[in-house]
Structure formats: C-alpha cells, structure tokens
Amino acid sequence: MSQQHNDVEFIGMIQGQKVSEIHAAKGPAIDRDYVRAFAQAHEQAGFDRVLVPHHSTGPDATLTVAFAASVTERIHFMLAHRPGFVAPTLAARQFASLDQFSGGRLGVHYISGGSDDEQRRDGDWLNHDQRYARTDEYLDVLRKVWTSDKPFDHEGAHYHYAGAFSEVKPVQTLNGKPHVPVYFGGASEAAIPVAGKHADVYALWGESLDQARELTTRVRAEAAKHGRQVRFSVSFRPILAETEELAWERADRILQETKRLRVVQGFGRGGPQQSEGAKRLLAAAEKGPRVDKRLWTAVAQEIGGRSNSTALVGTPEQVADALLDYYDLGVTTFLIRGFDPLEDAIDYGRVLIPRTRELVAQRIASQRKAA
C-alpha cells in the first residue's frame, strides 16, 4: 500500500528519542514507545516517508527502520546510510531484505560523509573526495547485486568480489524498478558527478531560492550527461503559528533556547564544517537572518550550518506559499521536521501538508490549461 503522491512528496524524520536543538537528550538512546508514536504520527499526518538519520555514535538506522516499519502500514522510509562501513554486497542484501519485510517501503539516502572526525569514529580514514569516489563504486555494486540474475565478479579501486550474488531482491526491483530509490546529498565538486550518475532524488539543505536554482541547474546538467533526470528535495524546519507575528515570536524563543542549551552543554558558536552543504547554509546566513520571503537562518548560523537547520517561518498558508516557490524551481520533495519533533509533525499534517498539496495541484492544473 503506497501512500506516495506523484506531484509532491513530504518526508519527516524520526529519531530514537526526543531530542533537538531545544530539547536535550534524556534517558536511554532508544525509547521504543517514542519511536512507535513518532512513526505512527507521521503516517497519520499524511507524510509519504520518514528519514531515519545516521550518526557515528547513535542507534543503528537500519534496525530503527525495521522497528518503525513493523508498527506502521503505509508510510515509506528513507534510511540514512554511509557507504564504506558495510560491504556493498552485504548492504544490498540487507536493504533488499528490509524492502521485502516492509512491503516495498524502503528508500536509502547515501551520505558519503562531510566530517573527517565523524568518519574516523568508525575507522574510515579516506579524505573527503576519496569518500565520494568510493560511493560511486559502492552504488555500482549495489545496483548490480540487485539486478543480476547470476553471480558476477567485480574488481575496482575499493572493492574486489568473486561470485557476488543475492538470492533476495528488493520488492521494488521485482516490480520493475531497477533498485531501491537512491537519495543522495553532497554539494562539493567531488559530489556532483556522483549525484548526476546515481541519484533518483538529490537532496539540498534549506538554501535560498538563488542558491537552490544554481545547485539544481548543476546537478541537472551532470545527470543529462548520463541521459538521466533527477528529482530534487529541499529540507526545512517550518515554524508555524496562527499569525505571522506569533510565528516570529516562536522563532525567537527557539533561537534563545538553542543558545541557552549550547552554553549548558559546553558548546560555543558552531564553526564551519568540511561539508559544502554547511558552508552554503552559512553563506545564506551571511545575507542576514531573513532571506527571501521567510527563510530564517539564525539557528543555522548559531550551530555552524550543521544539518538541515534553516526554517520557514509564518502561518501554515504562508509557509505553503514559500514551499511553492521551491516547487516552481523543480523541487518535488520537501523534508520537513520541527524543533518540537513529534508535536510539529502532527501540526504539519493539519494544514501545511494538505495546503501545499492543494497549491501544487492548482499549479499543475493551470500549467496544463496553459499548454
């Protein structure tokens, strides 16, 4: 049972416990009741997928997806995965098994790694550009394992196999798709060619409209070299309230609490990461805390551009209208998560998600009429 919509896709995010920039983690790293409620809330709110993130010190994302899939029926998943720690032949079998057990609800977001420190915690000492070269080969092997009907040999720069094969194939491959959907991030010169070759959906953080236009243009051009088309995803942290004034007041409270918690936790203002995506968020923040109609960059600047940390601030109607501007650039997937993670997911389902779908449907209808 697919809940997916062809016009626009909404992705949420679930974690093992309640935690965000304004909520310090408490208790065990995995709270089963919270994960269950979190996953089911996204399904009921009308999300198409949820992202399960990966961190070098956090719970295993693959097992979290397996648990969340077992307590839901329709919602799809986006598993964050770092190539390099599991052999691609084994990862292919794991993902195919997970796709089978979830009823064809798996997608995988491949993250080559924007931080040497993060990678080294798991014993990876390749540099930034080498990691993207490895991802390129990794995805080649994955696809071959999923689609090959007989054992094959592979000899590359990073992997060497004799007689690689998988008895288990993804549900989606058996249904005529070549593989489990590939979501891909990375804005560096090393990343863009890999994105053009492999990505089904290329994921940007919540950049300005000008930045998003520039980056999607580059990725489209790279994909065209392979005769491919890529869909695009942008990530935001919507901050909603009944009036615009109340939404900005809420945004200010979130910023103040973020600052307070960082002091309590012993963090200074976040410095720039190796990640090109983080640098691009900080470049947007340099233009001021408010960019375009309602893009708010203050938290991103405070934490050093780590993760998707820019917000769209306003009423649900205003934020839906701002999302439509990105849709007009060719963005058809929106990853939205809140600073109050569970409560905001429920809130997004009330007006923001249905209103955005409505605006997109209207836009499509008017385009067809004009054609």
Helix content: 40-55%
Mean pLDDT: 93
Gyration radius, rounded: 20 Å
What does the overall shape look like?
Answer: globular
InterPro entries: Luciferase-like_dom, Luciferase-like_sf, SsuD_RutA_monooxygenase
Protein name: LLM class flavin-dependent oxidoreductase
Enzyme class: oxidoreductase
Keywords: Flavoprotein, FMN, Monooxygenase, Oxidoreductase
Briefly characterize the structure.
With 371 residues, the protein is of the alpha/beta class. It has 14 helices and 14 strands.
In words, what does this structure look like?
Residues 22-332 form the Luciferase-like domain. It is an enzyme of class 1 (oxidoreductase). This is LLM class flavin-dependent oxidoreductase. Its EC number is 1.-.-.-. The chain has 14 helices and 14 strands. With 371 residues, it is α/β, with parallel strands linked by helices. Helix 2 packs parallel to helix 3 and helix 3 crosses helix 5. Residues 1-5 have low confidence and may be disordered.
